[in-house]
Each structure stands twice: as C-alpha cells, then as structure tokens.
Design a protein that fits this description.
Elements lengths: L5 H12 L5 H14 L4 H4 L24 H5 L2 H34 L7 H26 L9 H13 L2 H22 L7 H31 L2 H21 L4 H5 L4 H10 L1 H20 L5 H10 L4
Helix pairs in contact: 2-6, 2-9, 5-6, 5-7, 5-8, 6-9, 8-9, 8-10, 8-13, 10-14
The structure holds fe (ii) ion (2 copies).
Length: 312
C-alpha cells in the first residue's frame, strides 16, 4: 500500500538518530492518508447478515480464561459464548477510551491555530473516533450481549483524568488504550475462525488506528523533550497508575457471571494464568519498548508499570 518514498526514508533516518519530526509535516501526511483510507462502517459492513454458527467472536487464545483449568472444563459452546461477551466488553472498553480520547484531543487543540495541519488532523481523528464508537455500539447490539461499562471508581478516575491530565500524560494514556487493543485486533481480522462482522470491524479499526498511534507517538516524543520537568515526572507516575487501572479494567468480570461461571473463581484463574500474562505483556511490548526509549518508564513510574503486569 505505502511505497517507500524519500520522505519515509528520511523519517527512518530521523528515527534512527532519535530526532524529532516536524509536527506539521507529520500531520500533513496523516491527513493525506486519512483522505485515502477512511471507512464508513454503516455502509462498509453487512449488518444484516446473520451470525455464523460455530464461529468465535474473538480468537480463543485471546479470551481471558484460555488454557486455565476452568477453560478446560468448559464446553466449546460455552467458550464461544464467553468470547462473545468478552468481545462486547472490549468494545465497551473501546468506547470508554475513545470518549476520553476525544475530550483529550479537544483540550489539546483548544488554544492552537485551527489552520495548522496539526489541529486539522486532531479534528480528523475525532471524526474517526466518533465513527468507531458508533460502530462498536452497533456491534454490541448486534451480538445481543449487554453493554459492559467500566466500574464506578474507574469511571470517576476517567472523569478526573480527562479533565486535568497534562499533554504528555494524555498521549501516554492514548497509546496505552490504543496499542494493546490494536495488537489483539491485528490477530483478529485475518482469523478465519472469527465471525465475519467482527473481522470487518477490527480491520477498519486497525487501518484507522495506525494513524492515531503515529500521531500520538510523534507528539509524545516531542512532549517528553519539551514539556517542563515536573510534567515529565508527573507523566511517568500517572501513566504507571493508568497502566494498573487498564490491566484491571481490561475485561469486565460480569462477563463470567453472564456465561454461567463463578466470577471470583474465574478472576482468580485469569490472575494466575501464565498464558494470559504472556498475552498482555506481548500485546504491550511495542508500546513499553517505545515508552522506555523516550524516557517514560523510569523510577516510581516503572515500578507501577511492573505491578500492572504489562512490563516484565
Ligand atoms: Fe478508535
Ligand atoms: Fe484511536
């Protein structure tokens, strides 16, 4: 799809040298890519097709209980049902993240020139997230599962965070929300065992999110050089705390009750699962490598990241 242009080669060179890319230039390229590859999920996907018998709603290896003693006792039917509820829980979590992110982006551009490519791209990203949230909501309804909100304390924490977070803190949280789910979605859309509609949803999301990740990474890289020292330090600690919340909130435990499992027992088994730990760590690896590289994972923050289970 993308050809290696001179600009790409130059970017690669800058990356290698650890130099900051021009903010406007990055945004212009993201705008051009958005103009070429954006999707309207309402038109793009077949929402009237019936669910496919025997197909998964999420790859089994990415279902929280996979490979635990409980999983081994479950029937294939119950496992698929759990994947259906976990997909709905992740879509709900995705909407929560996106709504937070939309507000962070609005705050980010509030005092910046609207004529700049950087602001125009932020507005484009907000448009993307509006379509995604509607797409996820439609997917949840389509699957006949409940809406799975995050817990009340996490909701309150999110409300506070989206109102007061610093710019680097905002972009770190953005990447955390986007990159782990993105890693899972990259395994989901090509998987033929998975429902066609879910494959379509994750494919659209992966394509559009790649730009969001790029935008957030470039901005965070700049911020970790240019933001005041206190703000950089604050980012290290708050992002570590955010990682802890993220790993707890990742799957809503009500899914277990709703498929007829003992919630406490299921949560304990997920917590003890080596496979699950590996999945979460691998999913976060690209992100933690990047954050380490730009100096976010230091001191107290690093210890918090470790205790979240996302960092080895
Ligand atoms: Fe999104
Ligand atoms: Fe996004």
């Amino acid at each position: 799809m993308t050809t290696l242009t001179e600009a790409d080669a130059l970017d690669g060179l800058r990356d290698a040298l650890g130099l900051l890319k021009d903010r406007e230039q990055v945004a212009e390229r993201l705008l051009a890519s958005s103009a070429k590859h954006s999707f309207d999920p309402d038109k793009e996907l077949d929402w009237d097709a019936p669910l496919e018998e025997g197909k998964w709603f999420w790859p089994p290896e990415l279902v929280s209980l996979y490979d635990t003693p409980m999983w081994k006792r479950m029937s294939e039917e119950q496992r698929i049902l759990l994947s259906r509820h976990e997909a709905a829980a992740l879509a709900s979590l995705g909407i929560w993240f996106e709504i937070i992110l939309m507000q962070l982006l609005v705050r980010h551009i509030y005092d910046k020139a609207a004529t700049s490519a950087h602001v125009r791209y932020a507005l484009t990203e907000i448009e993307d997230e509006c379509r995604h949230s509607k797409m996820f909501a439609r997917l949840i309804r389509h699957g006949g599962t409940p809406w799975y909100p995050v817990s009340r304390p996490h909701q309150a924490l999110g409300r506070l965070f989206k109102t007061i977070s610093t710019t680097p803190g905002s972009f770190t949280a953005t990447l955390l929300g986007e990159e782990v789910l993105d890693w899972m979605q990259r395994l989901t859309f090509p998987d033929e065992r998975v429902q066609t509609l879910i494959r379509g949803v994750t494919r659209i999301h992966v394509v559009e999110e790649a730009r969001h990740v790029r935008y957030a990474r470039e901005e965070l890289r700049r911020q970790m050089v240019t933001a005041p020292k206190w703000s950089q330090e604050f980012t290290r600690v708050t992002s570590g705390e955010f990682a802890r919340v993220f790993s707890v909130a990742f799957v809503n435990p009500e899914v277990y009750t709703n498929v007829g499992l003992d919630k406490r027992e299921a949560m304990a088994q997920v917590k003890a699962s080596g496979h699950r730990r590996e999945v979460m760590r691998t999913g976060a690896k690209r992100l933690t490598d990047f954050l380490d590289d730009i100096g976010v994972l230091r001191g107290v923050g690093r210890r918090l990241w470790r205790s979240s289970g996302l960092l080895a």
